[in-house]
Amino acid sequence: MSELDHASDPVVGASSRRDLFKLAGAGVGLAAAAALPLVPATAFAATPRFRLGEPEPAFILDPDVLYMNIGTTGSTPKYILKQFNDDNREVATNPTQSFGGVTPFRTLAAPGFGAELEEFVISYNTTDGMNKILAGVELNSGDEIITTNHEHPGGNGPMNLLLQRRGVKITRVNLPVGNNQKAQDYVDLFKAAITNKTKAFVFSAPTYLTGTMLPYKRLAKLAQKNGIMTIVDGAHATGMFNLDFQQTGIDFWGCSGHKWQCGPGGTGVLYIRNRVTKANPLPLFNFWPTNTNNSTLIEPRTNANAETYNIGTAVQSIGNPNYPMLKAFAECCTFWDSIGRGVIEKHDLTLSLYLKQKIASVWSVDNLYSPKDDPELLSALTSFSPFHTSSASVALGQAATDETAQSTTFVTRMREEYGIVIRNTAVPVIGSPAPHHPMRISTHLFHSARDVDRLVRSMKDLASRMDAGA
Fold first, then answer.
1. Looking at residue 58, what is its pLDDT?
2. Which residue from 46, 67, 74, 225 puts its CA 20 to 30 A from 259's CA?
3. Which CATH architecture has domain 83-336?
4. Cα 219–220–222 angle (5° rounding)?
5. Looking at 273-369, which runs of residues are DSSP E strands?
6. How far, CA to CA in Å, does 17 sit from each of 181, 301, 348?
7. How confident is the model over 252-272, as pLDDT tens digits?
8. Beta strands in 277-415 (DSSP E)
9. Which of 230, 255, 267 is CA-nearest to residue 129?
10. 395-429 residue pLDDT tens
């Protein structure tokens, strides 16, 4: 059982990140975060297979390896893997087996994300979703997208295609790194970049490079005031955060199913706003299901709080899918729902805050590339360097080569010598000629404070050895 769990605590629902900070006593030291109760035993009454902070018996992660790279890919629960295997065998035996078709799987998964069925698509990963979104929205020559310099290739690829094929202008705002930042900073950056040609905001929440959770609700409000559509790369949001897509005010979300949601590889979530709501009163933006085998004439979309037509089904329909894979993904979603997405969010973010505070204590707060003090920017991804601060300037040439090699060696040795899997990223830093290569660490539902303690001890030891030339 996680050392942070206390059976006497009330069940945690969709608690806000600000409540988390009040409980943790952010900024008053490690003891507050380490003592923070997470969830009680009663929270798992409906889920006897699993307790937070314990990989067994729900997951088959290698017990000899501490896996902290969920940001790359997660681990599908054991009982779902067994059913997935059985279902694949069933299809091999009876090739016409469809398990009722894709609609029942979408019906199971959509409510957990605060979406109606007609807005919800089980995609094949974030890149698939982002490509479908950016190919389907109406952007033409001279129109402008405002995005950031911290985007993933899954979003940059289709944006570059719009630039090259249609003449859409791409404007990038340079994002801050480190702890010295506030949510309002991002609103100010995007607001300053708006022109009369701006048609879309495209940004990640959280970013894959530093784990900064961009304040999507604030950015959605800014966009709505200016008649701008919002498109979010949420690869690291689904399965980590307790999202209610309709209440976010965002028009389109392209998300992963195999990372924090721990579904099979080749699964994702695509949300297409299909109603006018209080959270987003703008008329629906034109969207064309460009990747579909649905030959029905697409009708104009209405601007009322009711579906026009089932646009999700039109986008979902692309021929014969992998039914067992989609079924397994839906089962992962209902498993998360049974634990409680608010419970998982609180667990993940609390461990992340605990890790960030330990890094600030053992190294310095300046070694963090992720923010820790503004709860609105917090995610369960932590980015930091054990060798230099986030404000350091890395020169081009040999200095950049050496910094990259040092970072890569650290990741390799953590796995080979300490049995801990993390990764590094290449982060553009304002004022630095070359990108930095900090570590990126994921804390998820099968991790405990003991895991964080082991990680920090191991990283401190390895950094000291490498500094000494060992």
1. 85
2. 46
3. 3-Layer(aba) Sandwich (3.40)
4. 65
5. none
6. 16, 35, 11
7. 999 999 999 999 999 999 999
8. 381-384
9. 255
10. 889 988 999 999 999 999 999 999 999 999 999 99
Predicted model pTM: 0.90
Tokens 């980590």 correspond to what residue? Answer: 240
**pLDDT value at residue 358:** 95
Owner of token pair 């990989």: 55
Residue 391 pLDDT: 87
- The answer regarding whether domain 17-68+340-467 maps to CATH 3.90.1150.10 reads yes
Q: Domain residue spans in the chain?
A: 17-68+340-467, 83-336
The length of the chain in residues reads 470
Chain centroid to CA 445: how far? 14
Model confidence pLDDT, tens digit, residues 206-255: 999 999 999 999 999 999 999 999 999 999 999 999 999 999 999 999 99
Please report, to the nearest 10 degrees, the dihedral formed by the alpha carbons of residues 310, 316, 318, 324 taken in order.
-140
126, 131, 312, 379 from 254: Cα distances, Å: 5, 9, 13, 18
Task: Report how far apart, in Å, the C-alpha atoms of 173 and of each of 134, 189, 227, 297 are.
Answer: 19, 7, 19, 39
pLDDT at res. 35: 42
Q: Is 295 exposed, middle or buried (0-12, 13-18, 19+ CB in 10 A)?
A: exposed
Which tokens hold the place of 218?
């604030």
- Going from the C-alpha of 427 to that of each of 216, 261, 439, the distances in angstroms are 21, 25, 10
Nearest CA to 114 among 287, 337, 382, 409? Answer: 337
